[in-house]
Design a protein that fits this description.
single chain; 265 residues; alpha/beta; Rossmann fold; 11 helices; 43% helix
Length: 265
């Protein structure tokens, strides 16, 4: 199991795809692991060298003591790239991962070729909402939260049509360490990039889900308006668009990274 360890953080990662291809880093959402990308990776790795990893506090990565900051999460990616000897990448992040990608675009622009900002926002939720989520995780645990999270991540029709997939995702959420989850809730509570994202110079593709209650299309359109070299695609999905609309998601990413105009879902 590949691990990058600098004495402060142990990051679990996986690489796949074309070793000589452009690198595409995938950054996961709150409450998930690198397996949230399982449905799009087979498409993406036919063109790119894929690097996906578990955000600190998630999956098999270590759980340093809280609090965490968006800068720490962004520097974790830079550490991983240095560990792998990779200088410049495309980066695709969903939700919390999208915030990580934006931080990189703002603070490490020399490391970013193009970025995909999926189902995310420069500011996500409110302080009160995240404090309530933290209290729920502390008091009730991740297994309790998993059912409510599924309702926000997927449309009802998709949940009804894909019970086996829903069980796999529920298990992934429930397996998330509550301490890591809570620490990353703190990152989302404390991060506001709205005043900074206009500094992003890398080309960006903003992907939203029409039915996403966690990061609604208005969040994505605000990023699209602020980032000068950006494109916008809206998919018929809820929050985890890379799973619910995997083929359309992959189509949009491949077109964008290849310099084409991505089609709107």
């Amino acid at each position: 199991m590949p691990i990058a360890d600098n004495g402060q953080i142990r990051l679990h990662y996986e690489t796949s795809g074309i070793a000589s291809g452009e690198v595409l880093v995938l950054s996961n959402s709150l409450g998930s692991s690198l397996h949230m990308w399982d449905k799009v990776v087979p498409r993406l790795e036919s063109t790119y060298q894929i690097v996906r990893y578990d955000t600190r506090g998630h999956g098999v990565s270590s759980i340093p003591p809280a609090p965490y900051t968006i800068e720490q999460l962004g520097r974790d990616v830079l550490f991983l790239l240095d560990h792998l000897g990779i200088e410049r990448v495309n980066v695709c992040g969903l939700s919390l991962g999208g915030m990580v990608a934006m931080w990189m675009g703002i603070h490490a622009p020399q490391r970013v070729r193009r970025m995909v900002l999926a189902n995310t926002g420069a500011r996500i939720g409110t302080v009160e909402m995240w404090n309530q989520r933290i209290a729920a995780a502390q008091n009730s645990g991740m297994a309790f939260l998993a059912a409510a999270i599924l309702e926000r991540w997927f449309t009802s029709s998709f949940r009804n049509q894909q019970p086996a997939e829903m069980e796999a995702i529920r298990s992934m959420i429930a397996a998330t360490d509550p301490n890591g989850y809570i620490a990353c809730c703190g990152v989302l509570r404390d991060t506001d990039l709205r005043a900074d994202i206009s500094a992003i110079s890398a080309p960006a593709l903003v992907i939203t889900g029409t039915h996403d209650p966690a990061t609604p299309p208005s969040n994505g359109r605000a990023i699209y308006a602020a980032v000068r070299n950006s494109k916008y695609v809206e998919l018929d999905s809820s929050h985890l668009s890379a799973w619910e609309r995997a083929d359309q998601f992959a189509d949009a990413v491949i077109a964008f990274l290849g310099g084409e105009e991505p089609g709107n879902g």
